[in-house]
C-alpha cells in the first residue's frame, strides 16, 4: 500500500479534463520559456534507469555539448523519464520520475555565485510566467508564487536551526520565505554531516543548490528544481577526497584531463511542477502511474482523481 496524505478540505480546482489540458499547456509553455531564456536547443537523450539518473543525464549532456561543438552561452535541454526502483510511493512519488534537464556552456570566469543566482532567477521567472499563462485560462487556480528568491546556504540553515534536521530546516525557512534557493549541497557542514548527499563528479558543491517553493496545498516546502555549476578539475579533486580506485570512471578522467567544456545546468521535475502550479495534492493527478487497489480506492473516497 502507498502512503497517502489528504489535506483537510481538499478539492481540486480543476476537473480531470481541465487538468489534462492544463498539464499539456504547462509543459509546452514552460520548456519553451526556459529554452528561450537560457538559449537552449532540444536534443534527444538516452533513457537512464540507475539511482543517479539525474546526474547521469547531466553528465551525458555535458559530454554532448563538447561533441556537438556548442560554444559559450549556448546549451541544450532534454527530457528524461526513469523508473523508481526503490522507495515508498506516496503523494509526491509515483512509479517513475520525469524531468527536464538542461546544460549550457560557460567560461571559467562565470564560475561564480552571482552567475548561479542569475540562472536561478531565470528559472523562477520561467515558472512564474508559465503560471500567469495558466491563470489566464484557469483563474480558479488562484494564488501566485512569489518571484522574490531568497538565497541561503546549507551552513546558514544549520547555524539558524541547529536542533532541526535538514528537511525540517527547509520547512522552517520556506514558511518564512516562500521562494528559496538552498545553496551548497553535498559537502560536510560544521556539524560533520552533509545537508544531503550529492555525486562528487557532477556539481561543484560550493556552486549548486535546490529551488523550493512553499506549497500551500500540501502545507510544506516543495522542491521542483536544481541548478548547479559543474565540477572543474579543482572541484572534482576536492570532492574526491579519501581513498579512490586507481582506475577512475571515464567521465571523471575527462574532467581531470580538462577535455570537457565548462558548464552549468539543472533539472526540473515535470510532475512536481505540475502539482505545484495546478494545486494538486497527489502526483497521480498529473502523472499516469501505477497504484495499488487500496490507494486507488482511498484516493477516490478523498476526491483525488488519479489519471
Automatic annotation (TrEMBL):
SUPFAM superfamilies for this protein: Class II aaRS and biotin synthetases
Gene3D superfamilies named in the record: Bira Bifunctional Protein, Domain 2
Keyword Cell cycle: no
Coiled-coil features, chain-numbered ranges: none
BP-aspect Gene Ontology terms: asparagine biosynthetic process
Origin superkingdom: Bacteria
GO-annotated cellular components: cytosol
Domain Aminoacyl-transfer RNA synthetases class-II family profile: 74-298
Keywords: Amino-acid biosynthesis, Asparagine biosynthesis, ATP-binding, Cytoplasm, Ligase, Nucleotide-binding
MF terms in GO: aspartate-ammonia ligase activity; ATP binding; catalytic activity, acting on a protein; transferase activity
Pfam families per UniProt: AsnA
Protein name (record): Aspartate--ammonia ligase
Species assigned in the record: Candidatus Anaerotruncus excrementipullorum
